[in-house]
Design goal:
511 residues; mainly alpha; Serine Threonine Protein Phosphatase 5, Tetratricopeptide repeat; 3-stranded antiparallel β-sheet
Length: 511
């Protein structure tokens, strides 16, 4: 763990093709090809190149803010009443789903281009490393990460910018371009089916390459390095990056996107069984302990895979006004007294399934000791737990790629309408670890689905996942005080940058 804080601050791969899926590829010539080839001649160089991919993904444009506790959570209506009562707030127009508003267009364009930049780096990594794989230590492990990351990024782009999928026929609609070659060729958009087929191929390839993943023996935080003199980042803290269990879990998510619930359920069971000695639902004592340094407030032991974000606490302290950190009124989203009461009433304590005993509510939201007239609450899921140094933390600054709780939610949803007793059982498995009583059955399909969505809303706050669940299920979004936002395609499909139509043969859909 001695170098974990530095693992993501390396520069990106020197091939440096910063581009979107189509137009920008035509304008940029890859630089430093000789240097790139030399970089991939050693395991150390390959470790650095792989770190460059994570460096992009953990930027504030992507999972360091926008795609976690920022833009995506605003779309899921978590930040009430702070956003709706401030028309100057950076997320105000976003919360109204005014996607053509100038700042929102810019935000979506930045997400699009940065995600494709990360895909470019994955393609470069695979292109340069595969020919040298036989003589590079841990090449399979690193290539497995790259293939799985490429699949994950495309899946995320599909979920954000692709069509709403309500029936199998919707998967025949054009979605995004799946780029799996390191080249500068403009690509036509693939259908949803094609995108998910390519992603499955990449994930299956990743599973084969990651079959010897050290996470199986050393756990999430273990270090498989035997010497600091011959040290490789890829062997350390496997839970804080892409790994075997995460790739397996992503296959379960992928099958849900395909509307293949039986297959999704099968993969979910595999994850639960294969990861049981390494990653499982949290023991609630993990946060009920009286030791501050021992609290696992972000439920890190449930993360199948995660992005380690070096500056996360700096950002979250400012955004949520924790520890009195200042921020402009158009940027900050503090948890005020009104916000705290709204969180209790409309998320965690909502009748009949909610309760103030929920450990997520009890431990994630803490009133600050402040002399200020305005009362703010710390959002401890996204706050540094203990100031005694990194070795004393109960957890680290991570944004999950996927959680074990999501696996249980998938298992629950996949059984609704088939075996409702079993479906409710999976949901109750999660609730027990959150210090909630079981929901008693029998219940009909719609009621179980509603309770499932409510629990996911409790769990995913601060992580950016809830909005995508609403979209996939084409489900109404609960705001506050009984206010509901009805599902609508215009709310769920992000606009693809105009350049992707202007300079290619892709046809922009009519409004």
């Amino acid at each position: 763990m001695s170098t974990i804080k530095n693992k993501l601050i390396g520069i990106a791969v020197v091939v440096g093709v910063c581009c979107s899926s189509c137009n920008s590829w035509l304008d940029v010539t890859p630089q430093g090809q000789v240097e790139a080839e030399e970089l991939y001649e050693t395991a150390k160089g390959c470790n650095s190149a792989l770190g460059g991919i994570y460096y992009i993904l953990t930027s504030s444009t992507l999972y360091g803010q926008n795609l976690s506790f920022g833009m995506m959570d605003a779309l899921a209506q978590y930040y009430e009443p702070v956003v709706s009562t401030n028309t100057n707030h950076t997320y105000y127009e976003l919360s109204l789903y005014n996607f053509d508003y100038a700042s929102n267009v810019s935000r979506f364009n930045s997400v699009w281009s940065s995600m494709y930049q990360a895909i470019t780096e994955c393609n470069a990594f695979i292109h340069y490393l595969e020919p040298n794989a036989s003589r590079i230590e841990y090449a399979d492990l690193m290539l497995g990460e790259a293939y799985a990351l490429r699949a994950f990024i495309h899946m995320e782009l599909f979920e954000m910018f692709g069509p709403v999928v309500r029936t199998k026929s919707d998967l025949q609609k054009k979605a995004i371009a799946y780029r799996n070659e390191f080249d500068v060729t403009a690509r036509l958009f693939n259908t949803g089916d094609e995108v998910l087929d390519y992603a499955e191929t990449d994930l299956q390839k990743a599973l084969e390459l990651l079959k010897g993943d050290p996470i199986k023996s050393y756990g999430r935080r273990g270090d498989a390095n035997e010497s600091l003199l011959d040290y490789y980042e890829v062997l350390n803290y496997r839970g804080g990056r892409m790994n075997y269990f995460c790739a397996l879990g992503l296959l379960s998510r992928l099958e849900m996107l395909r509307l293949n619930k039986d297959e999704a359920y099968s993969y979910a069971l595999r994850v639960i069984e294969e990861a049981k000695n390494v990653i499982s639902l949290i023991d609630k004592r993990g946060i009920e302990t009286t030791s501050e340094m021992g609290k696992d407030l972000n439920y890190s032991t449930e993360m199948l895979g995660a992005f380690y974000v070096n500056d996360m606490y700096t950002l979250t302290n400012a955004i949520f006004r924790m520890e009195g950190d200042p921020a402009g009124t158009n940027y900050a989203t503090p948890i005020t007294t009104n916000s705290y009461e709204q969180i209790m009433t409309d998320i965690y304590g909502r009748d009949p399934d909610g309760s103030g005993t929920d450990n997520r509510f009890r431990y994630w939201f803490e009133r600050q000791n402040s002399e200020s007239e305005e009362v703010y609450y710390n959002f401890k899921k996204l706050k540094k737990a203990y100031d005694g140094g990194a070795s004393s933390l109960g957890y680290y600054p991570e944004i999950p790629i996927m959680r074990m709780s999501e696996i249980y939610y998938i298992a629950c949803e996949s059984q609704i309408g088939k075996n409702n007793e079993l479906a409710l059982g999976y949901l109750n498995d999660v609730r027990r670890t959150r210090n909630l009583p079981d929901i008693e059955g029998p219940l009909d399909d719609a009621v179980i689905k509603e309770y499932l969505v409510r629990d996911a809303r409790k769990d995913f706050i601060g992580e950016g996942r809830m909005f995508l669940m609403y979209k996939r299920m084409f489900y109404e979004i609960y705001v506050k005080d009984g206010k509901i936002i009805a599902p609508a395609e215009s709310h769920f499909v992000f606009p693809i940058p105009d350049d992707e139509y202007e300079y290619t043969d892709n046809v922009k859909p009519e409004n």
